Amino acid sequence: MNVLIIGANGQIGRQLTELLHNSKEHQVTAMVRKKEQAEHLKQSGINTVISDLEESVESLTEAAGGSDAIIFTAGSGGTTGYDKTLLIDLDGAAKTIEAAEKAGIERFIMISALQSHVRENWNEAIKPYYAAKHYADKILEASSLNYTIIRPGRLLNDPGTGQISAAADLERNSIPREDVAKTALVALNEKNTYRKAFDLVSGNVPIADALKEL
User: Residues of the signal sequence (predicted)?
Assistant: First the structure.
């Protein structure tokens, strides 16, 4: 499967790109915004495409050409204002979903946020971020795409354990970014995750087994 990573220069995106690059089953294209980012990835033998989520749907459709699946891991980050949260986490996601439909790409995995589907459980300190994730997820669910929405808990840079808990509703907890990336990789071909959304935190069940039990 040819997989396009949106947000390949982010912390989860970099790990996913590396996992897919080393996979015997998939090929990866990393979408980045800057030429120097692309050059760095090319030095590792990774295929790249330069595009920007603030550009047009048409440019994103062109960037996605030839892909079989998209994994959306992009985010505006904690150092930008909520204007960028709106433009990247919501409108950027919406444009990517539209681009996938235009390009005939059926498989789409979204990295969202824990409990983004329940307004009452949004973190008060970053409510606009949760609102952006909430409505991006709703747009994806209403699309024609074969989606999986992964809603991870508080993200850690600790080494992954390969053990997770995945369910429609989970209490707040944390998870290493490495395990989020590995979960997205396993979900690509796991039919039990098709057209489903789930919370994801660290647990005691191997990733593949946990996804089969959703």
Answer: none
